[in-house]
Amino acid sequence: MPDNAISKPRLERDGAGDFVLDPALLADRFSLSTDRFRHLVQSGHVRSSVEQGLEEDEGRQRLTVRCGNRAWTAVVDAAGNVVSENLTMLRHMPAR
Length: 96
Hints:
Layout: E1 12-13, E2 19-20, H1 23-29, H2 34-42, E3 46-52, E4 61-67, E5 70-76, E6 82-89
Helix pairs in contact: 1-2
């Protein structure tokens, strides 16, 4: 998925500073209905991670959400703006 194919959202954070991701946004990124995506989350088939940027990426974070054999990755600046994002097909992972 090219960076310019979809609009780049601003991600919100909760009181603890954790990202709060809209299920509809993620469902769209994975080309799923929101209901299907919520079902996959509830059944434990969606995982996420956050990495802190270092050196030239200081102040940025990389979010990765894995769903079946796909991974959506977004680089987010300190203000919560998505700087870049992509969807990757993972090898040797079953589709869900």
